[in-house]
């Protein structure tokens, strides 16, 4: 679009300022993780590697990472199966109550986490009489992760069409063979993207987790929240935060690689 | 070489159809699309209805029960007391208005920040810069929610970087409180608002804007009369994220909000310390009603397709 040099400059600097403000807090956390001060004071009075060493020896932190990964993987697996099935049903069939089903998929993520949290807490403990454990967390996470898989898979199904599958059926392949050799390879990258998002969502979730985790089940967000207000532990939280920011570059890179195949059209 | 070709031709020959269980199932499914549909729907529907809808409905029903003041157990005793308490109690009025105010402020701030940056990304930046900016905007989205709130806790702390920057000017920073909550929530949801608006702007063809300027419109008129009406659904889609996510939040308020409470905190304390699930469920009805009202109002703009 043709814009005067002044308005281009204004837009560019607005973008620059916003991005600067977005990254300053993350930088502060990075610097604080090396600070000798335990009270988040700025500028740091001195620098030390003590917290980094302590964080990597912290049994609690390492166990919390393990728990989060475990919950994330199982919840993602469940969400992949349920989300794919429901995308096929909604995309390939016309039936009564179709809109209600698509609302049902979105609802667990659209309503505030605390409502989902207390509803599930009440459901597990009072209605089912099941003690909270790691499995109640997995069930809760899988429920709201379905939507990320659903969004990715249904978008792919819309673009795919059915002609290749029909050709496969015409050539004598059964339902399973067609799925394995024709449908699945076309869906693979959408499943990967949806699964990645589902895992990230589960890994980061704190509110529903608080209400569904049994005694002793500490996911990484719960560990962070528990330790954030303890002066002796606060710098370790900074270290974990920095590591999480660094690790988050991996999914971004993968997502960009996946999206890179699609051309940018203006 | 020749033998290789013949063997491959043999392999490519269509094998005779064997009568296996899988084959029979496949034939049945091909002939019965309804059976196919039920096979696909049964597992996810059972899961979502049993785990989610039953739990949600049970919670909402609990709002009409009460807690025995001696034993602390829930009694199945139908009453409107909780609803009446929530509707008439001044505490709930104040907190509901505060929560609405915070959610609106966050939404307005985010749209104001997102519009120029999304416009620059979609319509001004070169394709290369565009790709870099998309990554730069997406990156904080992947950083953990708690990490970002914690970051603002460090920035806004009494000895933090913000106070350090403001000190030479003799200005007092906002500290922890309602302002800190608005700043932090705006920060958290900004990428969720930028992305739909950016996607909406990408769909506005450049030719339309050029046509407008060929017909003599100044850039500002083109933006106001051509671009803005086209991206309005995308802006509303972004507002759904910032508004709904702010409405239910209580962790950010706990970490940077000082003593001020939002609806989420009331629900939390009623479940936790007060052990009064019926009242908590009644309070939870407030954000549910507001969110459904908001979604219903914006539904006709087509915003829900832009999510």
In short:
Chain A has 266 residues and is mainly α. Chain A has helices at residues 5-32, 50-57, 59-92, 98-110, 113-128, 134-160, 163-170, 175-204, 207-212, 220-228, 234-247, 249-260.
Structure description:
- The complex is a heterodimer of chains A (266) and B (307).
- Chain A is an all-alpha fold.
- Chain A has 2 domains: 22-57 and 239-259, no CATH class; 68-228, MetI-like (MetI-like fold, Orthogonal Bundle), CATH 1.10.3720.10.
- Chain A has 12 helices and no strands.
- The relative contact order of chain A is 0.13.
- The mean pLDDT of chain A is 86.
- Chain B is mainly α and 307 residues long.
- In chain B, a hairpin with a 6-residue loop joins strand 1 and strand 2 (74-75).
- Chains A and B meet through helix 1, helix 3, helix 4, helix 5 and helix 6 of A and helix 2, helix 3, helix 5, helix 6 and helix 7 of B.
Largest sheet of chain A: none
Largest interface: A-B, 92 and 97 residues
**CATH homologous superfamily identity of chain B:** MetI-like
Assign an overall shape of chain A.
globular
Q: For this entry, what is the oligomeric state of its chains?
A: heterodimer
The H-and-E topology of chain B, N to C, reads as HHHEEHHHHHHHHHHH
Q: Give the strand content of chain A.
A: under 5%
Elements of chain A, N to C (H/E)? HHHHHHHHHHHH
Helix residue percentage of chain A: over 70%
CATH class of the largest domain in chain A, anyone?
Mainly Alpha
Largest sheet of chain B: 2 strands, antiparallel
How far is it from the N-terminal to the C-terminal residue of chain A, by CA?
Answer: 11 Å
């Amino acid at each position: 679009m043709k814009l005067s040099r002044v308005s281009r400059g204004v837009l560019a600097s607005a973008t620059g300022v916003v991005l600067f403000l977005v990254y300053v807090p993350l930088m502060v956390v990075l610097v604080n993780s090396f600070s000798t001060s335990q009270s988040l004071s700025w500028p740091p009075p001195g620098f030390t590697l003590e917290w980094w060493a302590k964080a990597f020896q912290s049994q609690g932190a390492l166990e919390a990472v393990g728990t989060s990964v475990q919950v994330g993987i199982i919840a993602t697996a469940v969400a992949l199966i349920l989300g794919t099935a429901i995308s096929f049903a909604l995309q390939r069939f016309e039936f009564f109550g179709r809109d209600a089903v698509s609302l049902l998929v979105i609802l667990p993520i659209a309503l505030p986490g605390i409502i989902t949290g207390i509803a599930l807490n009440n459901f597990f403990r009072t209605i089912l009489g099941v003690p909270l454990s790691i499995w109640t967390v997995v069930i809760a996470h899988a429920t709201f992760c379905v939507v990320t898989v659903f969004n990715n898979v249904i978008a792919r199904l819309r673009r795919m069409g059915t002609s290749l599958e029909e050709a496969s059926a015409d050539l004598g392949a059964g339902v399973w063979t067609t799925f394995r050799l024709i449908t699945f390879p076309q869906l693979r990258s959408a499943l990967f993207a949806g699964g990645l998002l589902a895992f990230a969502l589960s890994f980061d979730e704190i509110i529903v987790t608080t209400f569904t985790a049994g005694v002793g089940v500490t996911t990484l967000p719960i560990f962070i929240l528990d330790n954030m207000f303890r002066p002796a532990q606060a710098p370790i939280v900074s270290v974990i935060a920095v590591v999480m920011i660094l690790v988050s570059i991996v999914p971004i890179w993968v997502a960009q690689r996946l999206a890179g195949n699609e051309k940018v059209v203006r | 070489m020749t033998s290789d070709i013949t063997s491959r031709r043999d392999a490519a020959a269509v094998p005779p159809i064997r009568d296996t269980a899988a084959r029979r199932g496949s034939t049945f499914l091909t002939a019965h699309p309804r059976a196919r549909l039920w096979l696909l729907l049964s597992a996810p529907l059972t899961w979502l209805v049993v785990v989610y809808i039953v739990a949600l409905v049970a919670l909402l029903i609990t709002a009409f029960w009460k807690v025995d003041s001696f034993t602390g157990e829930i009694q199945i005793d139908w009453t409107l007391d909780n609803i009446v308490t929530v509707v008439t109690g001044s505490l709930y009025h104040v907190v509901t208005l505060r929560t609405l105010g915070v959610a609106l402020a966050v939404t307005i701030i985010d749209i104001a920040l997102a519009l120029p940056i999304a416009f620059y990304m979609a319509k001004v930046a070169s394709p290369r810069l565009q790709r870099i900016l998309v990554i730069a905007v997406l990156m904080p989205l992947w950083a953990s929610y708690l990490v970002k709130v914690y970051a603002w806790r460090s920035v806004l702390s009494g000895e933090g970087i913000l106070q350090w920057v403001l000190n030479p000017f003799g200005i007092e920073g906002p500290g922890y409180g309602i302002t800190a909550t608005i700043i932090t929530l705006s920060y958290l949801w900004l990428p969720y608002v930028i992305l739909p608006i950016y996607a909406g702007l990408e769909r506005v063809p450049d030719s339309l804007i050029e046509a407008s300027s060929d017909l003599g419109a100044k850039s500002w008129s083109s933006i106001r009369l051509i671009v803005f009406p086209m991206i309005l659904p995308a802006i509303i889609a972004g507002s759904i994220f910032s508004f709904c996510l702010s409405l239910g939040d209580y962790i950010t308020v706990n970490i940077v909000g000082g003593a001020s409470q939002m609806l989420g905190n009331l629900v939390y304390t009623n479940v936790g310390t007060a052990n009064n699930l019926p009242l908590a469920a009644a309070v939870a009805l407030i954000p549910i009603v507001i969110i459904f009202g908001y979604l219903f109002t914006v539904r006709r703009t087509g915003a829900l397709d832009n999510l």
